[in-house]
């Protein structure tokens, strides 16, 4: 083991006495340096901080007692040990003065060699212990003052504070001085609901020797922190619990996370219950429909079979929608949903959304108001997703509004943003629900008479989709019973950037085309009329075959858009009748049906239709047909 010799500075103006002491100490194994006066002694102390100064009182320049005082006064040298010596007869007075001045011990000369060595040894040992103590205290202080937890030491019997770390001021938001005056004042900040429990547990500490509590602290600014508070008994050699160490840890972040987790867990449970319910709902009618098909197999009861098939179709659509939404949510949360972007015109995706949502709105007898800006508005986005967002909002508006309500869709352009609002006069949304309306699985409390419908994923999906498009969504409601409004904001592209390859360049104003729309669905036709009028076409409508023929004769349409499934006289018959009218020989007949089989197209062609479009109507496709026809018209006047 390497051993560094302690360094002793031997200060005496009497060269003989000094040399004698140096010899003795070197023989005892110490490194010894010498000084003959006070100034030299102080300079050497400053330079290399000896372990011990053997200091004679009588010095020619500065008094030895003064030299000692200056060594001890300076922080840098205060831990240097001083062994004062004096040949004075006036021993005891000098000794008192020396010790008062900070000397660590005092010897009266002449000193016996053994006595000198024994004293130096004892002092150096003391110095080492003091040094270690200082180090350990320093380590404790560094630890206690640099951790975020509040660290306390107190005596448990009649609680008196011995130490508290400065973190108390951060955690409790109060000054440590308050604790000096009244230790238990920390309890005043404990939340009233927790205080009694904490006080009781703390009071039983000495007896139970055990204390662990979680409680809230209310800080002077009103903010609340959650604390985990623990006390550990400190025992003396006889095993008696005489001190307590306490750690108060701020666990607010953990508590917040726990609460969020708890809420999420609760929502997940609710979601699973709703999911089960929603998935089971369509299964009942589906099973009945299958049963019906089985029972009527071979019977001549086509209406029943049609009904059963329709029920099956509707319920399967519903299930598919649920599953699609779930898949979308999963894709979004895994970051796997990508947009198929292209330039899409507002009216095109609104029309597609209406196609999807309208049957539902009609089934609930809602009136739909539509207000779109004139001219084209182009968005660079995913056509399918854009219409999904709108139809989702329309669907909700229809769902959360009592039958016979009003649903409005309004769009307008402000600067380079497109604003779309979907508004209803339905059940409305409370302020509290509004805050979380776009959260996944969030569903408002329902009145008992209103069955849950949906999974609570729709709005969160719309929000994610609109954000993927660089836009935003907001919800407004004046409160329960006062309707709701959802607004979408999307960036728009100024002008149509690149005409789609299939769209023929249009040389004619749409107004030059007169279009007769024939459909027995009053709402469907109203919507389409509005859309086409907004685009600038001149529109007439009819709801059945005879009315269509009559209107055709007076209105002389360039184009007839004809639904095939009309009551009484079906679309094929109407087409054939129209074809027989010479004045209408240049009129373009366009069939609109739900059936896209080659057989159906063939039948349509045979009846005199030039085009066969499939429901839901794709507005872009219709416009392609209309533009091409307008071009033809211009070429062959
Ligand atoms: P779902 O309709 O499947 O429950 P959504 O995410 O579409 O899920 O909607 C979440 C919740 O927001 C609904 O459960 C409903 O409480 C509320 N909400 C949505 N749209 C409306 C609306 N137009 N009027 C009133 N409440 C609505």
Protein model, in words:
The chain has 637 residues and is an alpha/beta fold. The strands form five sheets. Strands 2-1-3-4-5 form a five-stranded parallel sheet, sandwiched between helices. A five-stranded antiparallel sheet has the order 7-6-10-9-8, sandwiched between helices. Strands 12-14-15-17-16 form a five-stranded mixed sheet. Strand 8 and strand 9 (224-235) form a beta hairpin. Helix 2 runs parallel beside helix 3 (64-73), helix 13 runs antiparallel to helix 15 and helix 17 (545-555) runs parallel beside helix 18 (571-579). The chain starts with 6 loop residues before the first strand and ends with a helix. The protein binds adenosine-5'-diphosphate (ADP). Adenosine-5'-diphosphate (ADP) binds at residues 396-397, 400, 424, 426-429, 437, 442-444, 454-460, 484.
Main attributes?
elongated; 5-stranded antiparallel β-sheet; 637 residues; 20 helices; alpha/beta; 21% strand; binds adenosine-5'-diphosphate
């Amino acid at each position: 083991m390497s051993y560094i010799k302690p360094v002793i500075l031997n200060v005496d103006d009497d060269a003989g006495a000094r040399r004698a002491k140096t010899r003795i100490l070197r023989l005892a194994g110490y490194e010894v340096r010498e000084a003959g006066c006070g100034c030299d002694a102080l300079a050497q102390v400053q330079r290399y901080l000896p372990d011990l100064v053997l200091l004679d009182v009588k010095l020619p320049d500065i008094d030895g007692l003064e030299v000692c005082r200056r060594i001890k006064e300076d922080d840098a040298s205060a831990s240097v040990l001083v062994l004062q010596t004096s040949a004075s007869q006036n021993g005891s007075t000098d000794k008192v003065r020396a010790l008062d001045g900070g000397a660590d011990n005092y010897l009266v000369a002449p000193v016996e060699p053994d006595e000198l060595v024994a004293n130096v040894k004892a002092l150096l040992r003391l110095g080492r212990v003091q040094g270690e103590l200082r180090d350990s205290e320093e380590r404790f202080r560094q630890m206690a003052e640099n951790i975020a937890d509040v660290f306390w030491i107190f005596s448990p019997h009649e609680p008196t504070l011995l130490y508290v770390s400065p973190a108390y001021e951060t955690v409790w938001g109060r000054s440590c001085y308050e604790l000096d005056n009244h230790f238990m004042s920390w309890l005043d900040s404990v939340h009233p609901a927790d205080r009694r429990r904490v006080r009781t547990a703390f009071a039983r500490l000495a007896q139970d020797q055990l204390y662990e509590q979680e409680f809230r602290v209310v800080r002077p600014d009103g903010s609340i922190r959650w604390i985990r508070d623990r006390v550990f008994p400190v025992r003396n050699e006889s095993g008696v619990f005489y001190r307590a160490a306490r750690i108060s840890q701020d666990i607010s972040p953990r508590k917040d996370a726990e609460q969020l987790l708890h809420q999420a867990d609760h929502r997940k449970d609710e979601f699973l219950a709703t999911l089960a319910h929603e998935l089971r709902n369509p299964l009942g009618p589906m099973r009945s429909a299958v049963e019906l098909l089985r029972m009527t197999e071979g019977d001549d009861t086509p209406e029943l079979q049609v009904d059963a098939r329709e029920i099956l179709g509707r319920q399967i659509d519903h299930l598919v929608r649920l599953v699609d939404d779930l898949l979308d949510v999963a894709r979004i949360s895994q970051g796997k949903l990508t947009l198929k972007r292209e330039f899409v015109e507002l009216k095109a995706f609104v029309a597609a959304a209406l196609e999807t949502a309208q049957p539902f709105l009609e089934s609930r007898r809602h009136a739909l108001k539509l207000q779109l800006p004139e001219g084209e508005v182009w968005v660079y986005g995913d056509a399918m997703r854009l219409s999904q967002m709108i139809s989702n909002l329309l669907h909700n508006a229809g769902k959360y509004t009592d039958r016979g309500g009003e649903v409005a869709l309004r769009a307008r352009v402000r600067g380079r943003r497109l604003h779309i609002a979907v508004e209803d006069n339905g059940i409305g949304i409370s302020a509290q629900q509004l805050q979380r309306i776009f959260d996944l699985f969030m569903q408002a409390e329902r009145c008992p008479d209103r069955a849950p419908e949906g999974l609570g994923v729709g709005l969160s999906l719309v929000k994610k989709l609109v954000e993927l498009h660089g836009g935003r969504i907001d919800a407004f409601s004046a409160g329960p019973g006062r309707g709701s409004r959802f607004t979408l904001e999307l960036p728009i592209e100024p002008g149509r950037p690149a005409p789609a390859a299939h769209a023929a360049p249009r040389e004619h104003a749409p107004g030059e085309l007169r279009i007769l729309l024939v459909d027995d669905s009053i709402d469907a036709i109203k919507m389409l009329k509005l859309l086409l009028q907004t685009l600038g076409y001149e529109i007439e409508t009819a709801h059945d075959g005879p009315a269509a023929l009559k209107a055709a004769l007076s209105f002389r349409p360039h184009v007839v858009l004809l639904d095939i499934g009309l009551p009484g006289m079906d679309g094929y018959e109407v087409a054939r009748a129209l074809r027989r009218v010479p004045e209408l020989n240049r009129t373009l007949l366009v069939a609109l049906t739900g059936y896209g089989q080659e057989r159906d197209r063939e039948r349509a062609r045979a009846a005199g239709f030039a085009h066969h479009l499939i429901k839901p109507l794709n507005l872009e496709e219709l416009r392609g047909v209309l533009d091409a026809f307008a071009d033809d018209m211009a070429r062959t006047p």
